[in-house]
Amino acid sequence: MATRTVVEGITLERRKRFSETYFGEWIMTTDHKKLGIMYIITAFFFFLVGGTEALLIRTQLAEPNGKVLTPEIYNQVFTMHGTTMIFLFVMPMLTGFGNYVVPLMIGARDMAFPRINAFGYWVVLFGGIFLSSSFLFGQAPNAGWFNYAPLNELTTGCGSNAVVCTPGMNTDFWALGVLMLGISSIAGSLNFVVTILKLRAPGMTINRMPLFTWMTLVTSFLLVFAFPVLTVGLIELMFDRLIGTNFFNPQAGAEPLLWQHLFWLFGHPEVYILILPAMGIVSDVLPTFSRKPLFGYPVVAYSGVAIGFMAWGVWAHHMFTAGLGPVADSVFSMTTMLIAVPTGIKIFNWIATLWGGQINFKTPLLFALGFIAMFTIGGLSGVMLASPPADWLENDTYFVVAHLHYVLFGGTIFGLFAGIYYWFPKVSGRMLDETFGQIHFWLMLVGFNLTFGGMHVLGMDGMPRRIYTYPAGMGWDFWNFVATIGAFTIAASILVFIYNFFSSVRYGKLAGDDPWDGRTLEWSIPSPPPHYNFAQIPVVHSRDPFWVQKYGDAGAGHGRMAPVPIAGGAHDAEESEHGGEHHLDIPMPNESFYPIIAAAGLALVFAGLLIGLPLGNPRPPDFPPSWVSFLGVLVLLYGVYGWALEPAMPE
Q: Is 550 designated active site?
């Protein structure tokens, strides 16, 4: 027993020394702030990957009869563009924001389950590598990010009698990669739900939570219930492809529309999963820069909850041309138009928040205003598509591409950049350069409208989406050329942001703790925050707790606030430069190797299902998984076993 104790002590000491190195600090971390940074950096990398894919698409379509990409490569690029942007950029980026900011906003020291938090990140990283590696094998997904059946099916042979055939590993990469990312999303969502419901500071009731926290909570519930629906479809698809079942194969009498129902029953709540957190960011940015409390706080919060409930009743508006019949089309048309009501309520409350305020046109506010304007345009075109006769005309045209991007780029990505500029001082202790920030905003706004505005015209002129080229004389040349110019303008804006980011991290102006005169709890602690976040858990008495702390009850009134000096003087900046550490003896969760080990085991399990897979057709019905899968199971079990026996907190 004594020998075992000594060995355990040596092992713990080695782990501690490794965790204190720069590399080990990030590999073993369970700190929500570091994991948030890792999520954001990883997601931004995939944003650059997805953006490069978009530039290839636009270059191919810049002129008629383009020859930049072959048809097969084009199919792979546009499929991976949609998949990357949704599953590898926006969702991980929003998770990263939530990881970093939510515990600070609610007065908590960490997430409820720190090691599950770390596990979720590593699964995203390995899942992204898994999906992107498909390009190295020439087997990237090629059936669209929605992967419709029967395009995703194998048939009995790829001869001349085959109705449809997708040999190779393209669809397998997509299905298994999205399954991996779903595991991370569900784990992270459960973590957010428990954290927000159980770890709020004393006095922070549900009706005092910041709006970003509210929307993160609603989004987490949506993900917990929506992703299992897609998971069922993905498992059935892999059964069809690996062991010869026939869930979606029309040649065997199956119903391909089943895939559409399963996919869109996930896919339309997914739209609100992507947009609601951005709405939360905007709802927290606008009051700060208009120096007024959010107008109609309860209405804005509960309209988000209403959107969460109503999101489950609109999925079949993606299927108006699938032949569901007039009754189904009418019902889903009505529910789609109704869901615009809570969205419109939010927009009017945001405008009312700005009305009469002392508006400070800094970069975070500009991106928030850009969000409102572009998302409103996307919402209006969505109401048009909610009419089945109009949808019949515009379905599968570039009008739908324009609508989707005005919602998810003009909405979510503008909202994300509002959050990046808003919270960068808190994360880094330095300010992003304001001049470069405004150049970034205007370039992106102009480039975005050049790219996607004209696509409404292309769609009305009948240009189908998902075509890799088009003949001259169709009247599509001009707007495609304009869209390509716009895409490269967006790329230029991102280069400006990247330069601004790296120069500001090193040379940026010291921010102090509260550079924006913030309202919420994260601005009451040093920048960057110490490991333990709060030396003493705060007690909350208002929806704008830090304004009350600084200015008393009058500071949280509903009228225009009096001008006051911006907090964050020289002393604050100096303290922030040193991280604000007071070296208090506050117990925090242990670092751990086991989340990355468990995630690596899971990745090996999925990789093993592809290694040795026949590239052609037919596949043997008793195809055996590779030994890599069995190795992955062993690694996964080792990670889970060590995780279960490891103390979560210092002993």
A: no
